[in-house]
Amino acid sequence: MSHKNFGAKAWLQPMPVGIIGTYDQNGRPNAMNAAWVGQWDMTQITISVSKHATTVNLLNNPDFTLALADRRNMVAADYVGIVSGNKVPDKVAKAGLNVERAEFVNAPVFTNFPITLECRLVQKIGEEVPGGGCNLIADILNVRCDEAYLDAAGNPDLDKIELICYDSIGNNYRVLGKVVGRAFHDGAALK
Ligand SMILES: Cc1cc2nc3c(=O)[nH]c(=O)nc-3n(C[C@H](O)[C@H](O)[C@H](O)COP(=O)(O)O)c2cc1C
Q1: Other C-beta atoms within 10 Å of 123: how many?
Q2: Whole-structure pTM over 0.85, yes or no?
């Protein structure tokens, strides 16, 4: 079978679109788009960050939030990924994000987004990576979800929420799709 090799690419799909919320040293909130995010353990995530205002905030204060970006807030999510708080001090207001202090960590929650993880940095992995960034591991202390987006069983309803993913092949945002099967279940048909 013929195929095409592309070499090393950041093409693991789907990539989440997370919005990191931090306070700077004066208590001013900042927001940053982060797609290089993954579940690390049951209650831990990993984030690869370059040198940004957010990175400095994170290294000064380990607490942050990670909102999962949804279709309704896609423009704001992209805006905080192309503008730096270093250059635009009122970036959060310009993005139209509403801020509330998190309950479990010392970090801002942007209530526009339906689901938010409240996290605390626990480890910086490896040496500095090219570009001056680093890889971070953080504990998830709490996950909160706007009650308007819960299903009948009381869990976040992904059909209602319409999370977006970052398509690093085409540089697009895509909506997380419909249910096509049941995990830990449908494979049993082949047992
Ligand atoms: C789709 C998308 C994904 C991004 N993912 C990351 C990421 O995972 N890590 C990172 O360091 N920067 C990432 N960025 C870049 C930052 O969001 C961007 O540089 C931002 O302006 C930094 O803001 P700050 O300086 O206010 O913290 C991403 C940007 C976009 C648009």
Answers
A1: 12
A2: yes
